[in-house]
What we know:
The complex is a heterodimer of chains A (116) and B (416). In chain A, 8% of the residues lie in helices and 28% in strands.
Amino acid sequence: xxxxxxxxxxxxxxxxxxxxxxxxxxxxxxxxxxxxxxxxxxxxxxxxxxxxxxxxxxxxxxxxxxxxxxxxxxxxxxxxxxxxxxxxxxxxxxxxxxxxxxxxxxxxxxxxxxxx
Amino acid sequence: xxxxxxxxxxxxxxxxxxxxxxxxxxxxxxxxxxxxxxxxxxxxxxxxxxxxxxxxxxxxxxxxxxxxxxxxxxxxxxxxxxxxxxxxxxxxxxxxxxxxxxxxxxxxxxxxxxxxxxxxxxxxxxxxxxxxxxxxxxxxxxxxxxxxxxxxxxxxxxxxxxxxxxxxxxxxxxxxxxxxxxxxxxxxxxxxxxxxxxxxxxxxxxxxxxxxxxxxxxxxxxxxxxxxxxxxxxxxxxxxxxxxxxxxxxxxxxxxxxxxxxxxxxxxxxxxxxxxxxxxxxxxxxxxxxxxxxxxxxxxxxxxxxxxxxxxxxxxxxxxxxxxxxxxxxxxxxxxxxxxxxxxxxxxxxxxxxxxxxxxxxxxxxxxxxxxxxxxxxxxxxxxxxxxxxxxxxxxxxxxxxxxxxxxxxxxxxxx
Lengths: 116, 416
């Protein structure tokens, strides 16, 4: 189970939060004609990386505020949480532990959750 | 040589202390070029290779697998098989699969331990009743055996179930007698062995790193054992399909999440059918060894950890103990998670894509095991003919542009 650092309330148990999927998704701006395919991609396709991932959470059973987060999906380690009005952090600031695209990290996957 | 299993081979090998059993498949080094490479050595991938060789006469095929055969979601599910889906497209697909299951042990001459002990889907409220009765009617129109059970009939079938004294009482259920369970390893091993006999190279410990394309045509795949050229590539990598698609520049509408399951200590036979409840989220069957096989849910967030959150298990166990108070003092032996790839409409993708020679069989989400032979069969057809089989034509990638979704959130059982 995760401990999530709400930017407004501090670290709380995951059961207080709900996940909101990928963060920073841009709606097509409507300045030009938008085809079905582009709409379909906007509606249905979300990033699904193994590794560093921008995502949204909401503190449902707390302050009820939305915020963003960078989490490593290969280990579930939460690297940073930040408010919606803050700039998104550069992923180069974080180390990715996935060596090959679909390989497992040494620690943090399966039952190897901590260093031996 | 075709390997045959019978009471005589068992007796013969017992006399030699079970040391002389032939290897079920070779472990060849990869060749430089294949007509078809299947990425993913689970049931769906091995089955695809089997049907490609058997029904479409292709010989130069490889299956590459990151770990060991059936070590991914094929070995991590609760092995429930049924075909009582709502929409025609899904009903045809899953029924095609169920029909193949019914004959698979004799076709492969390998016991996949398919046990048609019936599958029950419980209703806990007024809405469940309406939705399940509608599904039963839809199933009947598609010629699928499915009927409504009253609470009294459920009590007769599963006397240990607490139907009344709980927060969400049991009000009825749908029941599919032809549904059941099968041995998960056996389907991978059976398909692997028979595919290998037809010349398919099965290459384990070979991780696909990148799918290479040139001018919109497939070139091959970079693997941990070097670059393998291919005319066609079929990606059947469940949770990791999206990662591989990305390497070829294709974005798929998939989200990968851990789905958990757990088994108890073995006990004497106590439940002789499969009972699923999506409303309180608990489903259970009893394995031949006597363990209760319990299915839990997916995490709410994307993850590749093959572990899953503890809160999910707590929820499921809570529901289990309420539904079956007699299980209250049992110990759970093992828990695990598999990474499932979930589509927005809870239906799979078995489709070509923009790149010539690249095919995907993915998005099975929380319910792919039941479809293993059917999915493999139509995917092999799609790869061999470059055209979908009639059964999987609705499960294409275009549906996310056209909006013709196959919404199976109701029948998919595990709430996505």
